[in-house]
Structure prediction request, 182 residues.
Amino acid sequence: MSRKPQLRGRAARLARLLPAGAGRAARAPFVLLVVLLLGGGLIGLLVLNSALSEGAFRLDDLERETKSLTDEEQSLQRDIDAYSAPDALQRRARELGMVPGGDPAFLGPDGTVKGVPSPAAVDPAAARDPLVLAPEALAGDPATPGAAPTEPGPADTSPQGTTTPAPYPSDAQPSPYPTPGR
Prediction:
């Protein structure tokens, strides 16, 4: 039933010029081109998706690192604030043997003294028990680790009649409080 109609005249001559399988041969390159374009697009999307996911993992790692560094910075800032607090500064100063200053005096631009200076009040407990020791007091004899501590000698008397504290034993412990910056 589906017979090809017979061509006559001019149409028959033109039909002879074209090859018989030309219709099917023209479709194969087009189909191949479409398949290659679709395949290339899919591969391009795969590469793009991989690059985006790699960037997302890198971003996640950087956010985690930023959070840990921020936590560390806040912890260090809390330490600085604790060391800078007035009561902590006063405690460290007393441990170092410092005493509060007396009344200050000020010099004017013309050289006049304004105010009456007074010496710092010496705390008798700080004079008896300094927490900062001289290096020679810290250097003990390693050959006798279990030796009993030496007793302090008698106090020396100065020419003015005041007493000077005697040297302290080498087993005195340094302050248990950490020094900032060390």
